[in-house]
Design brief:
This protein is 41% helix and 15% strand. It is an alpha/beta fold. The longest helix has 18 residues, at 196-213.
């Protein structure tokens, strides 16, 4: 396969406007500017179609690079993305033996936790999948505090996304040159977008706003499952 083709697999269950899509789409745009043909799939939506599994295998089979961009779900990957990886796992093994270079795999994992290291387990899952399924592991980019992006295109997210754009630019340039994701890109992606105290404060305000909107503001400190004190 002479043409370089990058395929983005969006792991977020959100139909649109996810931070995962924003991150992956920006990287795809940079790769497109560097000579890659590009395509994007929302795996949850795709796998609900009758021929979703076959379409997924077909798209991956004609790609030289697969980019996973996903949120963190309970220290792991969302169920639809896990299902997609299980579908793909048998298909790439032995690609070198078939006379075809193994496709590269890059993963971007974002979470609502302010610390980027919370994504380490999910990235390790992606790395292990790459090794067992016959992909070339190109690296993983962890983002903490992804809610700051809020699903906005990175080009329109202003200064708060400056480090993210720098990290993804570096990753795209390195991959286009045939190398792995550089350590500097990982470092930039992992840096906090806002101070930790400010992120927690904003999150607390958002939580209270949602509670007020849903009429449960006075129930935030409720403990319905707390055991009753029977010592008296």
């Amino acid at each position: 396969m002479s043409e370089k083709r990058a395929l983005l697999l969006v792991g977020s269950p959100k139909v649109q406007g996810s931070t995962s899509e924003a991150l992956g789409s920006y990287l795809l745009g940079r790769l497109g500017a560097l000579g890659f043909a590009t395509a994007s799939l929302h795996v949850g939506r795709l796998l609900r179609t009758p021929d979703g599994a076959q379409s997924l295998r077909r798209e991956v089979a004609c790609s030289t690079l697969v980019v996973i961009s996903t949120p963190l779900y309970v220290d792991s990957l969302p169920a639809p993305l896990t299902a997609a990886l299980e579908i793909l796992a048998p298909g790439m093994a032995g690609a070198d033996g078939a006379g075809r270079e193994r496709p590269g795999l890059l993963a971007i994992v974002n979470s609502g936790f302010p610390e980027a290291h919370q994504n380490d387990t999910a990235l390790a899952i992606c790395r292990l999948f790459a090794r067992q399924a016959g992909f070339r592991w190109l690296g993983g980019l962890p983002l903490g505090g992804g809610e700051v992006v809020g699903g906005r295109p990175l080009e329109k997210a202003g200064g708060v996304a400056r480090l993210l754009r720098q990290a993804l630019n570096l990753a795209a340039e390195s991959i286009a040159a045939g190398a792995e994701v550089p350590a500097e890109a990982v470092r930039l992606m992992a840096r906090p977008l806002v101070p930790r105290w400010l992120y927690i404060l904003i999150g607390e305000m958002g939580w209270r706003r949602l509670a007020r909107r849903n009429g449960v503001r006075r129930m935030l400190r409720a403990r319905p499952y707390e055991e009753a004190d029977i010592s008296e």
